[in-house]
Specification:
Largest sheet: 7 strands, antiparallel
Shape: elongated
Structural class: alpha+beta
Distance between the termini: 61 Å
Number of strands: 19
Number of helices: 12
Strand content: 25-35%
Bound molecules: flavin-adenine dinucleotide, iron/sulfur cluster
Strand order of the largest sheet: 13-14-15-16-17-18-19
Low-confidence stretches: none
Length: about 400
């Protein structure tokens, strides 16, 4: 099928909502608008000049994405069969503690954006941030100060059209970096094929790994769950301030609400879902192979985070924490049992804490009892299963159960 119009891109579910068509055509011809189904889409307001439309369709990532160029002979790097071309791979985070804490996953992208601006490598950073007028929505942002770059730190799980200002920045002769989703970066790479200025004026494209963009309805459903209408919202933050951090909402009259990441996305009882657009389901590059730098979430597996010493005490099973992967809090002090319901116990160190003392054997390799969880200061009904080198602990409150796996270390 030959795609000849932007409407066809949209009608066939191929639009990513990047906004580069508005940028290239001019807002008088094409305007990105939030649709009734909760995604941002181009509205063609008046016919686009045919030659210009031809260029726009060559750039639109809903129509075309070309894979990364192979490494030229002699260039360093590996071509990984899953992750594509990799020059180097690092586990990193922002050394500025404020950025690290505030950002989605350690703040590498924000720190890099800030570095590029500070060092004079670029004059601006094009990215996104929470909308000032409608905090549940997301606006394209041109940052020319480090404070502005930091304001964009966090993941926005909703529609965003980061590329609406690209042509204006090119026309102004600015040198700028783009931080955006992989499909947005695909659009920049496509633009580089029809506009030679991209090669010199956009020297850095940074991206995230991307599991897809939910509609704006999701944000509003979360707000409604807390009893807030869209016009009562003062702040809507999806995550950050801890990893992955809570969905944090503030009303204009000073009330605030937090939902854990797990509840927001994994609890089947909440009245919303991660309702991604069709285009995300057929995404050819969710890992940012076309970008210069791609930053995913660093999901550290449970094992290694906490070391629990398990032993028998009489006919029961006992367990206590003997080591933590991160034993210090953000101030550099040993982590304390600060959420304990008994104030007298809140100053005791987490290392050394008893998690369970009286797990009774109820089956082959299976114990049941109560377990104390210092993460939230609660005690849960729990089951422990041991199989081979794996111990699985399942804790339940009413009908909601969670499991954690521990690997035996000798
Ligand atoms: C919708 C979405 C889905 C994601 N899915 C996954 C996933 O499945 N697996 C995974 O490993 N990681 C995923 N991530 C990436 C992850 O959440 C972090 O953004 C990433 O690890 C970078 O963390 P950071 O701390 O370096 O970013 P930060 O320093 O917080 O900077 C984030 C940058 O991304 C930009 N940004 C945020 N939201 C958007 C958006 N909607 N559109 C364009 N730009 C945006 C911001 O402007 C900011 O510049 C997703 C992010 C988003 C927004
Ligand atoms: S993918 Fe981008 S360029 Fe293509 S129609 Fe959608 S907003 Fe426009
Ligand atoms: S999943 Fe792919 S198409 Fe969807 S927003 Fe992410 S990068 Fe774009």
């Amino acid at each position: 099928m030959k795609i000849r119009t932007l409407e066809t891109v949209v009608q066939h579910g191929l639009c990513t909502g990047c906004g580069i068509c508005e940028s290239m055509s001019g807002r008088e011809s094409v305007e990105m608008r939030l649709t009734s189904f909760g995604q941002i889409r181009p509205k063609v307001k008046r016919p686009i000049d045919p030659a210009r439309l031809d260029e726009v369709l060559k750039v639109c990532p809903g129509v075309e994405i070309t894979g990364p160029r192979p490494f030229p002979a002699g260039e360093a790097g590996v071509l990984d069969p899953v992750w594509g071309p990799i020059k180097s791979l690092h586990r990193v985070w922002a050394s500025d503690e404020e950025i690290r804490f505030r950002a989605a996953a350690g703040g590498a992208l924000t720190a890099l954006g800030r570095y590029l601006l500070r060092s004079g490598e670029v004059q601006a950073v094009l990215h996104v941030a929470a909308s000032k007028s409608e905090p549940a929505l997301t606006d394209a942002k041109i940052s020319t100060t480090v404070e502005d770059v930091v304001e964009g730190a966090q993941s926005r799980y909703g529609p965003a059209a980061p590329l609406v200002h690209v042509k204006a920045l090119l026309d102004q002769g600015l040198r700028f970096a783009v931080i955006a989703k992989p499909c947005d970066i695909a659009a920049i790479r496509n633009l580089g094929r029809v506009d030679a200025r991209v090669g010199t004026q956009i020297p850095y494209c940074l991206t995230i790994f991307c599991g897809g963009v939910p509609t704006s309805h999701t944000a509003y459903r979360i707000a409604a769950y807390h009893g807030l209408s869209p016009d009562e919202l003062g702040l809507f933050r999806w995550r950050g301030h801890g990893w992955p951090g809570p969905t944090h909402i503030e009303s204009k009259n000073g009330r605030s609400f937090d939902l854990s990441y797990d509840t927001t996305w994994y609890d089947p009882r909440v009245p919303w879902t991660y309702d991604i657009q069709f285009r995300c389901k057929i995404c050819p590059d969710a890992i940012g192979e076309l970008a210069d730098v791609a930053c995913p979430d660093g999901w550290v597996m449970e094992n290694g985070k906490v070391t629990v010493q398990v032993s028998s005490c009489g006919d029961a099973l006992c367990g206590r924490i003997v080591a933590l992967k991160k034993p210090l809090d953000k101030h550099g002090n040993p982590k304390l049992d600060k959420d304990n319901p008994d104030p007298a116990l809140r100053n005791r160190p987490v290392i050394g804490l008893t998690l369970f003392t009286s797990m009774k054997q109820t089956g082959n390799n299976q114990w049941e009892g109560r377990i104390y969880v210092p993460d939230d200061g609660n005690t849960y009904d729990a089951m422990v299963y041991v199989s081979g080198g794996i111990m699985k602990v399942k804790g339940c409150v009413v009908v909601l159960c969670k499991s954690k796996k521990f690997v035996r270390i000798e």
